[in-house]
Design goal:
Layout: E1 14-16, E2 18-19, H1 24-36, E3 42-45, H2 48-51, H3 75-81, E4 91-95, H4 100-118, H5 122-128, E5 130-133, H6 137-144, H7 151-168, E6 172-173, E7 175-178, H8 180-184, H9 189-210, H10 218-223, E8 225-231, H11 235-255, E9 269-273, H12 286-296, E10 307-309, H13 322-337, H14 352-374, H15 378-383, H16 386-404, H17 437-452, H18 455-469, H19 476-485, H20 489-500, H21 519-536, E11 541-545, H22 554-565, E12 569-572, H23 579-589, E13 593-598, H24 603-616, E14 624-628, H25 632-640, E15 645-647, H26 654-668
Parallel strand pairs: 1-10, 2-3, 3-4, 4-5, 5-6, 7-8, 8-9, 9-10, 11-12, 11-13, 13-14, 14-15
Organism: Pseudonocardia autotrophica (Amycolata autotrophica)
Domain B12-binding: 539-672
Family: Belongs to the methylmalonyl-CoA mutase family.
Length: 672
């Protein structure tokens, strides 16, 4: 699937929506509704504490529980998530990376319980389990930020999962190498291809060198490697990119790993079209954007996606409602069932234009792959900061094209006049909001879970996990044992943190090269920054902070680069900071402004904590500004709470933003 053995109409790709919120029980209700509407696969969105290995009652989880996905803290939550959904018949994608082994262990443990309850043979159920764990830690260091452990032990966890899965759950894709977030972080098509394939090479080399899989079974390993890609609006180029991807993957797996079976070398990929490309301004335009992006990965039969999930039109505003997700689901179904797309062989075969573009992309990607391999491979290129610096620079160049008008975004920097939208009419609930009681309920629930379990069994299973982590033993089965013992997500990750340590990835800001929308405008703001500093007798300093667990740092990095370009001394310590850490850094560094970036919806919890902390530290005069996906009602509340300015995606002119921050500093310092 979708490669039929006959000449009949192609079967459609797996149709998914990315979903999860509030609690396992509420998300289970959503899944059942979506399956009843014709969705053919599940795509689990986990909340940020789960993604980064924390329990709901951890300090870093404050404000983040149930916001961007479902909290899964132990086997009880996984049971509730799949209640009434036979896992042996499901096709489940789990967007999880650093703790991917843990979530797969929970999934397998619950599948075993379902088998026992149904009187089925568990080995048969294991053989039927189908789906994917994203499990691509390299792009987490580069773009999304939900990493936990250093690169080497992270690669060890991936290696153990791949080796175990090929034998025990042979239909499962243990890794879904994810170029999606590389594109969001600024990757050109060539960079997206090359960095994703370098990650695949690193994983396959590690599995091969571990000795856990005999050489004659290595084709099975290659056959279970899948990819997860982004499709942007340049849909001709995006389609060519996927044809280039298929060609390069076939070449690498044949020449580097000696895989003879063409079916095992076939590129298998799923798609989420570009969520960060959706606009807050005139959001109804996002509907046609989503449809065009979907065409990029479905038009070409020889490079067609195996699974597709589409965002909702209003994701730039906040969490979509069930109706919005239904609309996105129907877009796929109309294309798959009403059009004649699936009735033809590849409609681009023989196109000179397409072939020329594919060749250009293949050659560019080969050159960049060689460059990274000469550095020692993907992990070395992460640790040195090379790949991150390249992405930050590429995104800065893309922002420059947007700000100059060279790149047109309808409704944002061109054709901005608009009529009032009935989709956002007064009184209409345009986005879904998570009940504030969700977090309190999760904290109470995990407390009750800990009290009800056998503490001795839990401690023994965690001791076995720590001991195994210090050896070369495969950690998959011992993690399943932890799941069955009632260990929590935070405890599993905490045990491995003790052995492996934690990691702070390079930010890429210092290596980035960028300039603004015009040299004149940059120069004018730089002069204001210099003059204000002269009046104060010191250089202006700005702290850019990422409070909470939101790892989408692209915006914060671009703000830091632009602040540096206009003359600020910039303090940027990367992601995953507590409000108290941000306050301490602001006071210690003597900054003149604090800029906070929050994209996870936790702004009403974490931002006021920073403001209160500054006041308590005697630094309440420092203006605090916030950027992120912030609905108008929340913006009003933040301003009433002392926030000096709120910037949302419609404020794309970053030099103007810097100018406004200078004005706020002057006002706070009594300079007029």
């Amino acid at each position: 699937m979708p490669y039929p053995t006959d000449r009949e109409r192609d079967r459609p790709w797996v149709i998914r929506t990315y979903a999860g919120h509030s609690s396992a029980a509420k998300t289970n209700e959503l899944y059942r509704r979506n399956l009843a509407k014709g969705q053919t696969g599940l795509s689990v969105a986990f909340d940020l504490p789960t993604q980064t290995g924390y329990d709901p009652d951890d300090e870093l989880a404050k404000g983040e529980v149930g916001k961007v996905g479902v909290p899964v803290s132990h086997i009880g939550d996984m049971r509730a998530l799949f209640d009434g959904i036979p896992m042996a018949e499901a096709n489940t994608s789990m967007t999880i990376n650093a703790p991917a082994m843990w979530l797969l262990a929970l999934y397998v443990a619950v599948a075993e319980e379902q088998a026992e309850e149904s009187g089925l043979d568990y080995s048969e159920v294991r053989a039927k389990l189908a789906g994917t764990t994203q499990n691509d830690i390299v792009k987490e260091y580069l773009s999304r930020g939900t990493y936990v452990f250093p690169p080497a032990p992270s690669l060890r966890l991936i290696t153990d999962m791949v080796a175990w899965s090929v034998t025990e759950i042979p239909k499962w894709n243990p890794i879904n190498i994810c170029s999606y977030h590389l594109q969001e972080a600024g990757a050109s098509p060539t960079q997206e291809l090359s960095y994703a394939l370098c990650t695949a090479i690193a994983v396959l080399d590690s599995v091969r060198d571990s000795g856990q899989v005999p050489p004659e079974k290595f084709g099975d390993v290659v056959a279970r490697i899948s990819f997860f890609v982004n499709a942007g609006l340049r849909f001709v180029e995006e389609m060519c990119k996927m044809r280039a991807f298929a060609r390069l993957w076939d070449e690498i797996t044949r020449e580097r790993y000696g895989v003879e079976n063409p079916k095992q070398r076939r590129l298998r990929y799923g798609v989420q079209v570009n969520s960060l490309g959706l606009t807050e301004a005139q959001p109804e335009n996002n509907v046609q954007r989503i449809v065009l992006e979907m065409l990029a990965v479905t038009l070409s039969k020889d490079a067609r996606a195996r699974a597709v999930q589409l965002p909702a039109w209003n994701e730039a505003l906040g969490l979509p409602r069930p109706w919005d997700q239904q609309w996105a689901l129907r877009m796929q179904q109309v294309l798959a069932y009403e059009t004649d797309l699936l009735e033809y062989e590849d409609i681009f075969d023989g196109s000179h234009v397409v072939e020329a573009k594919v060749t250009e992309l293949v050659e560019g990607a080969r050159a960049e792959i060689d460059r990274v391999q000469e550095m020692g491979g993907a992990v070395a290129a992460v640790e040195s900061g090379y790949m991150k610096g390249e992405l930050v620079s590429s995104l800065a160049a893309e922002r420059r094209r947007l700000e100059s008008g060279e790149r047109v975004v309808v409704g944002v920097n061109k054709f901005e006049t608009t009529e009032p939208s009935p989709l956002q009419a007064e009184g209409a609930e345009a986005i879904f909001t998570v009940d504030p009681e969700t977090e309190r309920g999760a904290i109470e629930a995990i407390g009750a879970w800990r009290e009800a379990r056998d503490a001795g069994v839990v401690e023994e299973s965690l001791r076995a996990l720590r001991d195994a982590a210090k050896t070369e033993q495969n950690l998959m089965q011992v993690s399943i044992d932890c799941a069955k013992a009632g260990v929590t997500t935070g405890e599993w990750a905490g045990a491995l943190r003790e052995v492996f340590g934690e990691f702070r990835a390079p930010t890429g800001v210092s290596a980035a090269t960028a300039s603004g929308e015009s040299a004149t405008e940059i120069a004018e703001v730089r002069e204001r920054v210099r003059a204000t500093g002269d009046e104060l007798g010191q250089r202006l300093r700005m702290l850019v902070g990422k409070p909470g667990l939101d790892g989408h740092s692209n915006g914060a990095e671009q703000v830091a680069v632009r602040a540096r370009d206009v003359g600020f001394e910039v303090v940027y310590q990367g992601i995953r900071l507590t409000p108290s850490q941000i306050v301490a850094a602001a006071v210690q560094e003597g900054v003149h402004a604090v800029g906070l970036s929050v994209l996870s919806g936790s702004h009403l919890e974490v931002v006021p904590s920073v403001v209160r902390g500054l006041r308590d530290a005697g630094a309440g005069e420092i203006p605090v500004v916030v950027g992120g996906i912030i609905p108008p009602d929340d913006e009003k509340r933040l301003r009433e709470g002392g926030i000096a300015a709120v910037f949302t995606p419609k404020n794309y002119r970053m030099t103007e933003m810097m100018d406004e921050i200078v004005s706020l500093i002057r006002k706070a310092q009594g300079l007029g």
